[in-house]
Amino acid sequence: ARDLATYAVMLADDALVMSQRIAEWCSNAPDLEEDVALSNVALDLLGQARLLYTRAAAVDPDGVPPLPEGSPAPPEDAFAFFRDAAGFRNVHLTEVENGDFADAVVRILVFATWRLALTERLSESTDPILAAVAAKAVKELTYHRDYAGRWVVTLAGGTEESRRRVLAAWDRVWPLRPELGATHPVEERLARAGAGVDPADVDASVDDVLRQVWDAAGMEEQGHRPATGPQGRDGRHTDALVPLLADMQSVARAHPSGRW
Amino acid sequence: ARDLATYAVMLADDALVMSQRIAEWCSNAPDLEEDVALSNVALDLLGQARLLYTRAAAVDPDGVPPLPEGSPAPPEDAFAFFRDAAGFRNVHLTEVENGDFADAVVRILVFATWRLALTERLSESTDPILAAVAAKAVKELTYHRDYAGRWVVTLAGGTEESRRRVLAAWDRVWPLRPELGATHPVEERLARAGAGVDPADVDASVDDVLRQVWDAAGMEEQGHRPATGPQGRDGRHTDALVPLLADMQSVARAHPSGRW
Amino acid sequence: MTATADEAELVTDFEAILGRRDRIEPRDWMPERYRRTLVRQIAQHAHSEIIGMQPEGAWITRAPSLRRKAILLAKVQDEAGHGLYLYSACETLGVSRQELTELLLSGRQKYSSIFNYPTLSYADVGTIGWLVDGAAICNQVPLCRTSYGPYGRAMIRICKEESFHQRQGYELLMTMQRGTDEQRAMVQESVDRFWWPSLMMFGPPDSQSPNTAQSMAWGIKRDTNDELRQKFVDMTVPQAEALGVTLPDPELAWNAERGHYDFGEPDWDELTAVISGDGPCNAERMAHRRRAHEDGAWVREAATAFAARTSEDGR
Amino acid sequence: MTATADEAELVTDFEAILGRRDRIEPRDWMPERYRRTLVRQIAQHAHSEIIGMQPEGAWITRAPSLRRKAILLAKVQDEAGHGLYLYSACETLGVSRQELTELLLSGRQKYSSIFNYPTLSYADVGTIGWLVDGAAICNQVPLCRTSYGPYGRAMIRICKEESFHQRQGYELLMTMQRGTDEQRAMVQESVDRFWWPSLMMFGPPDSQSPNTAQSMAWGIKRDTNDELRQKFVDMTVPQAEALGVTLPDPELAWNAERGHYDFGEPDWDELTAVISGDGPCNAERMAHRRRAHEDGAWVREAATAFAARTSEDGR
């Protein structure tokens, strides 16, 4: 049960932190349509995070971070607002700073492709709740992936500047790709039990999808990919997560027994 | 005593918030020398803030914001870390976002010129501690003013781009100038009692100094200056103060009974 | 409408449509001044939705619970959506979104003065929902019956969503009122800041609003500023009582004779200052919008270039 | 040094100076490889000070007390100052600061691998002071007696300040250890992350450090990597005990025979990866530095143009 809860938190943290970064685009997108679309992606991921935290708390109530005295916050908020960086289990791809719109779409493409591959398998989890959450997420992530993929192709085939920018964004995002394929012991155990998915098992299919986008965009395949073990899954993060959490948690922590 | 404490907090908040903004330049300045100089300005202002908070707490212990239970933090930290935006009394000039290096030097010039005019008079305050703090600050602020003034002249007489940027910075900073001359009732009462300074009394001399810089820089005098009453002095702030405080207070609030 | 029909006949037809409270549609003839007034009004409304994303949007990343984060994100997204409907309605009058954006960014068209006030605490998210969306609804419900078809239909959809937002805002404040003392103080402080600016959202007093008569005759305005303001006060006072907050107006009192609440005079000089650019956040809001627009230029150009290329290729 | 003195004589003089442990000064003759090795070493040290401002500097705005904020701000300011001394020392060898900056930004010169690790809690500020500055001091104290005059003198000043920083870092950790359970957990977690990277600051093992012998002969290195690493471990273990933290190495144990602590082998593959650009923060650090440099270009150009103009004017 502890493993299952930890696993749900890993997937929830990915979704929450990614949602938080995408939400920073709000009122800053290149056009109104993109403001709406990016908010949609952020909302979908936020919804996934909430369901997954709730599942984690139900499976292992002792694993819910302790709340300040007198706080009426539900478990999902205990996870989101009352853990420090070292307690978060999200991958680095979700936490790094936003960059430009090319970074946004490249990052969403890579993230959604990977998460879609995971959730497609996860919809057959032996845990019926995880399976249901995953089944719902599949539709959402398919949309995210297609949205971002269309933009990657558009930018690659747009102007000289947009091509230069989308290639630069790949260079920045690509070093974060290997971590997505690294298996954490919890993932390995759960995969063996049929409740979770080993990311190594979907790594090749993620590459296949990305290769299709590169082809459509007329881009070269990305090279150099250093091997890596789990990073964020073990609570080892980049500097970028700290200010993200400081901002996200500021109101909740300023009013530790507040009611919202 | 309540008035004297409030007054000290106003001056302290100006210094702390300005120091916080300048400290954001750290490792981002155009050259190492500027990194050192800006850190110096930030350090001086931080030092002024600390002395002033301590004075406020000594004069009116009941006015110190309540600390979370079990917190061993000294009064200066109660003021800095355990008030919300509406409790801060700093002027808007100190809190707005940083902008470019031209904004930095124009803002420091205006702030230091104004604060120098205040502290020169304040060094004759009937409150001996305020007088002593002010006397020390006079030397520091003179350096800040001269440093910023030299850069304003340099940028105005440098390249086309630097001239354009310094003029644009004036346009952004100038609307914040009127608030510096607005008198808060607390300031008025303390000025009458000889313990404080009415900013209206130094308004003209501030303009004189700024005019000298404009002349040296070959710039036109700034025009349009809408009248205004106290804003930040009454706890009415711009949006910019909120994220500044969220960041500044994040660690202290995450560990409400922490010892540092 | 034929090429030979003369102006007088067109005007007669136009007024007949207005007379039977029917709708003018994009392909109908309309007087140039009617068209221009509508463009200005719809554009200002669209711009307000877009600029209005900023003061609330700033709190999405800081929302104190995940539920509130989802609610707020969805709300700000709706505002972007409202902007889209309204720009589309405006385009049916022959002005492109790009032109309208330029008019906003150059300051030649305005947006609602309320968005030039800062948001300083999470209670402001509730207060904006309750008071600002509440005032907007008072303004907008009558516009669902406005004489210009696309505008009226956009308003129907918008009003439905706005009243949902208003309820959510009020519910947030209600919840906070059941929280800690500090939270109650936050709510009161927020209401203190937003009350008068909300009253100013209805515009200057009727005596200083020379265009009202023409707009009412054209059916693009259905009530005067002061009528709407009174309606808003009458609606809001009992809600404030239920909430347990004090509205910051000592003159506020029930007038049994009038059957309305009496209330004090807003500071019209402040409204003038805010409209003319000297509000607390005018510069900030415009700078944000301009920066976002400029930062996105290369993306819009890329999309245009890509579309041109793929249609050339016959793909 | 005259124009007629032949190379052999110059080399003899140079080696005589080294032999009596005297200092080489900028105007003295020196072998080109000595000069180049020194430039690389001093520049790498200078770059480390500059890049090292980032991981700690990020915490200035978030320092949890005003006293700690002042201490940290002053420390990071000192690092900028150290960078200035060291670039000056390097300039006496005929390389300009601008050239050195280009070499850093293009990645052709390195900085200490330790700054490619993230800082994730305020305890890291203490740990960096204690372990990272501690390791730096072990490396640098011998350099106060280095053969090149300007470098040695810069090191004397720097070492004095560094040991002040080290004490402040240790004191912060001590204070946190007297705080809450969460704070103690923060300290331990931070030490766990920084211990191995600190050991790697002394470079690869002697068996893989081919240049050490030449550098020692030239008097620009006084001890081998492994000697310094051992010294650091011996110094640090008792401090860790006093602090009440566990160093994350199960092999760590006193060896009475050797009179030193035994310790485990660092992950040298990790060091190679971090040096070759694949550390957790390499890209971030370089991007930050490049951005700051580019953002400041117009200011530096303005200062140059202004200086040129005023000197022309004879002012």
Automatic annotation (TrEMBL), chains C, D:
One GO term in the molecular function aspect is: phenylacetyl-CoA 1,2-epoxidase activity
Q: Which enzyme type, at the first EC level?
A: oxidoreductase
Q: Which SUPFAM superfamilies match?
A: Ferritin-like (SSF47240)
| Record keyword Oxidoreductase present | yes
Q: Keywords assigned by UniProt?
A: Oxidoreductase
The EC number on file is 1.14.13.149
GO annotations of cellular component type: cytosol
One GO process term, biological-process aspect: phenylacetate catabolic process
Q: Which InterPro entries match?
A: Aromatic_CoA_ox/epox, Ferritin-like, Ferritin-like_SF, PaaA, PaaA_PaaC
Checking PANTHER family in the record gives: 1,2-PHENYLACETYL-COA EPOXIDASE, SUBUNIT A, PHENYLACETIC ACID DEGRADATION PROTEIN PAA
Extract the NCBIfam families matched here.
PA_CoA_Oxy1
Under which name does UniProt file this protein? 1,2-phenylacetyl-CoA epoxidase subunit A
